[in-house]
Amino acid sequence: MKRVLIKLSGELLARGGEDILNPSALKALAQEILALKAEIPEIVLVIGAGNILRGRLMEEQGMDRVRGDYMGMLATIMNAIAMQDALEQAGAKADVLTSFFVPEIGELYSKHRANQLLEAGHIVICAGGTGNPYFSTDTAGALRSIELGCELYVKGTKVDGIFDKDPEKHSDAVRLPHVTFEEILIKGLRIMDQAAFALCKEHGMRLKVANMSEISQIKTAVLDDRVGSLITT
Fold first, then answer.
1. Between vectors from CA 28 to CA 27 and to CA 29, what angle results, nearest 5°?
2. Which of the four, 23, 35, 196, 211, has the lowest number of CB atoms within 10 Å?
3. Could you read off the pLDDT of 7-28 as tens digits, one per residue?
4. Number of folded domains in the chain?
5. What is the pLDDT of residue 60?
6. What is the pLDDT averaged over residues 136-148?
7. Whole domain around residue 186: which residue ranges?
8. Mean pLDDT over residues 138-145, rounded?
9. What is the CATH number of the domain that holds 47?
10. Burial of 23 (C-beta count, 10 Å sphere; 0-12/13-18/19+)
């Protein structure tokens, strides 16, 4: 496998600390990504912002949804800057590409520029979501993985893949190591937001859902076929 996109939870950047960012977690995360890069040369990252805020939660508290979503997009850029710094301190070349114009922070995302950087050995961090409200970072990950021709889109979760029923409610839930998009629809399983799922299904994007609640799980989650669940057409 040459190129992969990994959707990471923003909470990972704060793991083990009391603030929205934990320098120790960032350092460990950078080392884990570098270890993975030794196996997969071209890595794209999309990072959520749950450690800072979620647009939908702001709406629940009375804020306009569009403004809340833009705040969430800005929060993903904050996380991307922190991740870029950690990767560069670890010796990697990393670039932040933003979905809207923030020239002091990173270049504006384009497929052409992202491909140039990836082929030059840089880790590309796509920030700012899709640049539009109402779309999650899951959807941003699906969109970028399709645009950039990634061989696999890996979505980190808090459980060990996809199960035939909610494993938090049913002790007899069975993990599905390989399942098709159609089977997920038939079973009524929800693994990500509908826009992201529809994009992956329509374009035949191989999608893997795996537990990445701990930083040390990332490399294994991406590389080990025995871990998580693979969704294909």
1. 90
2. 35
3. 999 999 999 888 999 999 999 9
4. 1
5. 81
6. 97
7. 3-232
8. 98
9. 3.40.1160.10
10. middle
